[in-house]
From TrEMBL:
One of its GO terms (molecular function) is peroxiredoxin activity. This is Carboxymuconolactone decarboxylase family protein. SUPFAM superfamilies: AhpD-like. PANTHER family: 4-CARBOXYMUCONOLACTONE DECARBOXYLASE FAMILY PROTEIN (AFU_ORTHOLOGUE AFUA_6G11590), CYTOPLASMIC PROTEIN. InterPro entries: AhpD-like, CMD-like. Residues 54-124 form the Carboxymuconolactone decarboxylase-like domain.
């Protein structure tokens, strides 16, 4: 249970009700962060716009690189909601979610390739406090993914740091998306 109450559909304003309806259609349930942020209409709107814009703009990196880096941040920060929701999104992208159990061993595990290891190490360095990113690391990522890919990776990791830290601070925990209890949206291709 979050540290502050969610805003129910009946108590939500018109914008929050619209967000809830779209979220239910897309995810099968209203993500709890939306229902908590509905306590501040302006920030709910701001976060929805940012999420949709970032999703639309993030098309340079392969999905697996982007999603693994975001998932790594969730694990590092211990955001159970982000881990739950992120696993569901990866499953829907058709990515191999079984190897997520080995994410802590990415540096030596044969389940992760060189490019994935570079992105995961960058996620670790950006999530560390203080940040431990090096010039060499950035240069290597730019060589590997191009400048646009590097900026996309950096933005997505930073965005997940924001999500995970906000969710953790507000006591928002896993919602059952990976167990199917909350998410009734079928996997792509399964009808």
């Amino acid at each position: 249970m979050p540290r502050i109450p969610v805003v129910s559909t009946k108590d939500a304003g018109p914008l929050a009700r619209l967000v809830y309806r779209i979220a239910r259609r897309r995810y099968g349930a209203v993500p709890e962060p939306f229902a908590v942020f509905a306590n501040h209409r302006g920030l709910l709107y701001s976060s929805v716009v940012q999420e949709l814009a970032a999703e639309k703009a993030s098309r340079t990196l392969p999905a697996v690189i982007r999603e693994l880096a975001v998932y790594r941040v969730s694990v590092r920060l211990g955001c159970t909601w982000c881990i739950d929701f992120g696993t569901m999104l990866q499953k829907h992208e058709g990515l191999d979610v079984e190897r997520l159990r080995h994410i802590d061993d990415y540096a030596t595990s044969p389940l992760f390739d060189r490019r994935e290891r570079l992105a995961l190490a960058y996620a670790d360095a950006m999530t560390a406090t203080p940040v431990t990113v090096t010039d060499e690391q950035v240069a290597g990522l730019e060589r590997e993914f191009g400048r646009k890919g590097l900026v996309e990776l950096t933005f997505q990791i930073a965005l997940e740091n924001q999500r995970a830290r906000a969710n953790s601070a507000l006591g928002i925990t896993d919602q059952g998306f990976t167990s199917g209890e909350a998410c009734r949206v079928p996997l792509p291709g399964l009808g």
